[in-house]
Each structure stands twice: as structure tokens, then as C-alpha cells.
Amino acid sequence: MLSKALQAQGHQVGRYMARSLMREANIVSHQRRPHKYKSSGTEALIAPHELKRQFKVEATNQVWLGDITYIKAGKRWLYLAAVLDLYARRIVGWALSMISDATLACEALRMAGELRGRPKQVLFHSDQGCQYTSHKFRDELTALNMGQSMSRKGECWDNAPMERFFGSLKSEWVPHEGYATEAEARADVTKYLMYYNRTRLHSYNGYQSPIAMEEMAA
Predict the structure, then answer these.
(1) 68-102: pLDDT as tens digits
(2) Who is most buried in 61, 67, 72, 134, counting CB within 10 A?
(3) DSSP for residue 30
(4) pTM, whole model, 2 decimals?
């Protein structure tokens, strides 16, 4: 028990005395762990909200949207980063990883850049997730000569077409209980991406698939 004298009045004690008193009173200190996806102040590069929900564009490679979602794979999460061309809502780049970091977002962006022939002056829009506010992702955009726009904080509908794509993926395709393994999840999600671009009819495209819509406009 703590001594009556210490209970009756305050005393300044060192850390070793505090440790002994805590041990005597069976008190354990717990420090709150920081969220692993929280961006530090020096790392966050917030871009202005340039897109302003102008989701109708006149041609391909004018505006790309990006975002990351998670999918159950065994006892862990598999993360999908996707890049969507706003013109026909086509997924032009993606990457899958068990870690949701800037590298994942950069891999999806690089795939989109290569698939589209590295077009210049594309506006890339995303939320303010730490993957997109990182120096690493900003450097990737600069290398591709692309501009950057970000949703306002807490305004998920500033990136509505991307939210709708992820909603379709999870409601139409991903099993409710998720996948048994990472390999199964990777294979099936990739299969959906192929189906979505080539076959799935999209009301925004007049019930044409994204690829068919792009081919009609070519």
C-alpha cells in the first residue's frame, strides 16, 4: 500500500520512486499508439480542390481519380489502389499490397502512366490520405508532368466516381465474408477489374462498357 504520508500530501519523486510506488499499487502505464496511417505534419502536402466536382470531361486523359480501399484476405487486409480515367470511368491503373503506403499509390499511378502512354497535363484528383499527400507521391506526379487536386477534408463525394467504383466492386463481386487467402483475393479482384473495363455496362456511358465508350469516341 502507498504510505499514508504520500496519500495525505503531494510529494515530488523521481522516476525510480514512481516506478516502485506504481509496482506496489499494481498500476501499469499504457501509452496510446499513434495510428499507423497518420501523416506527420512535415510529410503532408495538401493540394487545392481544383476538380470541384466537375466530373464530366470532354476526352480521355484530362482527369484521373485515385483512391485506396481494403478487402478481407484471410485474417488480414489486402489493399487496392486504383486510378480511374474520368471520361469513361475506365480503371487505367491499379496495384495490390498488404501494406497501404505511398509505394502502393505510386505503383498504381505508374501503371496508368505506362498504359496511357505517359500523357502530359493530366489532373490527378484524390482524397487527403497520407499516401497521396506524401513527398514520394508528389515526386511521382512531377515526373509524369501531372497536376494535383485533392478533396476537401471529410468530403468523400468530392471523389464520388471513385467511391462508386469501389462500391460496385464490393457489392457486386467481393464475397461478403471476404477471401480465404491473399492469392485468392488478388486473382479475383484482378478478374473484376478486367470485367469492369471490358464488359460491365455503365449508366454514365449510355450503358456501354468503359472500353467500348472510349473506342466509340476515338
Answers:
(1) 999 999 999 999 999 999 999 999 999 999 999 99
(2) 67
(3) -
(4) 0.81
Q: Count Cα neighbours of 137 within 13 Å in the Cβ-side half-sphere.
A: 32
DSSP state of 74: T
User: What is the residue whose three cell numbers read 467504383?
Assistant: 165
Alpha-carbon distances of 132 from 109, 137, 173, rounded to whole Å: 11, 6, 27
- What is the Rg, in whole angstroms, of the alpha carbon atoms belonging to the chain? 24
Q: Strand 63-73: give its sheet, edge to edge.
A: 90-97, 76-85, 63-73, 123-126, 147-150
List the grid coordinates of 157. Answer: 463525394
Measuring CA to CA, which residue among 49, 45, 62, 68 is closest to residue 163? 68
C-alpha angle 150-96-82 in degrees, rounded to nearest 5: 35
Q: Which residues contact 8 (CB under 8 A, 6 or more apart)?
A: none
**DSSP state letters, 133-198:** SSHHHHHHHHHTT-EEEEPPTT-GGGGHHHHHHHHHHHHHTS-TT-BSSHHHHHHHHHHHHHHHHH
